[in-house]
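Model it.
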Amino acid sequence: MDLSVGDEFKSGFITVVGQPNVGKSTLINKLVGEKVVITSRKAQTTRNKIQCILTLDQAQMIFIDTPGIHRPKDKMGKYLNDVAYTSLKEIDLALFVVNAQYKPNNSDKQIANQLNALKTPVLLVINKVDQISKRDLLKRIQEYERLGSFEDTVSISAKEEINLDDLKDTMVEYMPKGPKYYPDDMVTDQIEQFIVAEIVREKILSFTHEEVPHSVAVEIMSFKEREDKDLVEIRANIYVERKSQKGILIGKGGKMLKKIGQTARKDIEDLLGTQIFLDLWVKVKDDWRDKQDALKMLGYRG
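Modeled.
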């Protein structure tokens, strides 16, 4: 496969940081044009660094999506923060994504201080501008710009795809000259099984009550392509911390688990372009978020 490009081609690695729920995952999905990173209104949706790839005629940009930086309550929370801060190292550009609806708070200041210590260029990205008046937006931009010395500020709405082309152009400006690391049609370097697990977890976050989401993990136990038909058979375990959470996930007569499986299967079929047989099992693993061996088993290695 020929990945050679001209001398003027640019490429680089971009980290996307910000508080939970400011729209980082939605932004990356919209930029790369695929649903690669799970999105949810629940905090701490993203747990693993995910490299997503945007290839343009003149540049290739590799995005690292990070967990939202927050005040950790357990080992899982500390792991999430460590992942976020580690991603700030050895990158070419950082996007500091904030929510236009709210004034900067202490968490924003903490993140800005980390970014101010970088030698890397930082773009301030004000998201959700469709939710605020133009007059209030100008005031909000000034409030956030006081937090640090940013190379540029771009106001967008990731969900409504407002000003995303301007953001792309601005990012390209700050990319160094470099090679094309990935083929044009590649949007992520994550294996399919990982994305499948994330899709299942997204459906759980969408359909279950508040006491379940942060206590859930998904492990793909088997992923087999049938030779006799166009079908992939997937078996996955869903781990929760308490029996009561298991009951909520299964639901009366198995209705909740069936709903999760049906909606996840549709997204997975769209991703893989083939029919899917999805077999989900719910298991209890007591207090797994505070157990180092459980974190490692479920893929959270830091």
